NAD(P)H dehydrogenase
Amino acid sequence: MKKVLVLYYSRTGNTEKMAKMIAQGLTDKGVTVDLKRVEEISVDNLPEYDGYIIGSPNYFGTMAAEVKKFIDESVKYYRKIEGKLVAAFTSTGMIGGGGETVCLDILKAFLIHGCICLGFTRLGHYGPVSIGKPDERVEREISEMVNKYAEVLKRI
Amino acid sequence: MKKVLVLYYSRTGNTEKMAKMIAQGLTDKGVTVDLKRVEEISVDNLPEYDGYIIGSPNYFGTMAAEVKKFIDESVKYYRKIEGKLVAAFTSTGMIGGGGETVCLDILKAFLIHGCICLGFTRLGHYGPVSIGKPDERVEREISEMVNKYAEVLKRI
Amino acid sequence: MKKVLVLYYSRTGNTEKMAKMIAQGLTDKGVTVDLKRVEEISVDNLPEYDGYIIGSPNYFGTMAAEVKKFIDESVKYYRKIEGKLVAAFTSTGMIGGGGETVCLDILKAFLIHGCICLGFTRLGHYGPVSIGKPDERVEREISEMVNKYAEVLKRI
Amino acid sequence: MKKVLVLYYSRTGNTEKMAKMIAQGLTDKGVTVDLKRVEEISVDNLPEYDGYIIGSPNYFGTMAAEVKKFIDESVKYYRKIEGKLVAAFTSTGMIGGGGETVCLDILKAFLIHGCICLGFTRLGHYGPVSIGKPDERVEREISEMVNKYAEVLKRI
């Protein structure tokens, strides 16, 4: 069975809420999911997963330093996690406030890892963006995201 | 007196509405403004301005081809428009739909021209992003944008 | 058999040389390839392929307007080309001259199409970047790119 | 007299070499310069400068976590460092390896701070990019960068 890591950092709880929705959605689809805060997990676990879904609040238009630190440490597995399926999500304070570039920057880091990155047409294209607390729009978008991620995961 | 080009492309009229608000705001601040659709102006006019404010609807997370064509043609004035003051704006269909990267990509093109690019703290950071028709939020953001742009323009 | 479109725009011939190397490499791997200049093909052909490899010279840190025009027209097939496998390549004038962001912007546009985007570890991470005429480094990188693209294509 | 912070993180010493060249160049132009490793300085010092030139090695296509941590902490001075003049530089392992996006991401963070960001025409457009140890090309580029930065700094 395919196994996915939902990895996130959260201070206010908004990104965490999104992470939980994503983990639940994937579980409902029959995917094995580990839901972890970035502080709870070591990069040594990365190779065991088939894919990663990574979320961060928007700090200055990109991921929080806590998430970047994890990604920097992941250099230890450079060329060893190629082909994993990656998607991103974020919560942010305001429209136009840099949330899209958070998702794009997370994908960019995993393109460098030689991963396979997923875009979306029925939600924030680079991944769902919550403006503050996740609302119904975000819930719907996460459900679309999970559908597509699970479907592609099966094929690769 | 400082002279600014507000340049835009618009199909649905949303970006055009924003362009008009910006032009009006700058005029009210005592700046000389030319408001032009991208089809109405030649790159040969670029050197005569002290700055550009450039807007495009979001097509695939970046500016419309019509705006990109104008920018490609502007290579004729490469190294001849260094130091102009540049800001960007966009209208898009949905939150997370790529609007932020439109503004960022416009700024990026003018960083390559050696221009001076402006970010914002009281609005979409890379420039105002309208979700569909410009509403009161966008109106307020444009007013903040105009204040800052005019203030920096005076100094450079 | 899987069928891939290698699509490019080229003025000086550098991007074209890269396109031909990629098409040849894929053909050698048993993939059916159509090699097309962006002016030679209509967006109506997009749905028939399993993937796209798209190249553009670097004009102002992103794709040429000719490529952007094609992408803008592809909105006609929005939500109809989800899941296609996409990679990018570019030729540029100088190191640090914006070549990387060309590849990244092409990928970004196809993330918006809901496509699956590929990064690399043994070459320019967002796709091969030629500095001027493709040299041996670029040849080697294209060979790595083709290997990985063909391998992932088989699985999805 | 104008005062500039040259701030960097470096592990191999390449980014540090670039930082020293930039600091020396600015000093020769009569600018007061503080040259600091990111670990040596607090965000509390940010308001006292007229501008920042920020360098990081390329870790996964963006700044090192150490630099991002500093930027995250700088939120304390949000809206209090608007209008500072910002430029970026990086050292990276290979062409196409993500160096350009390091510079662009640093600028992006300071656009969010409402700063004024500088692009270049005679060097890496978003800032100088060293491939490994800084060579003569990089030295020449840094000299051009310093000229332009010092010239714009005088005016703003």
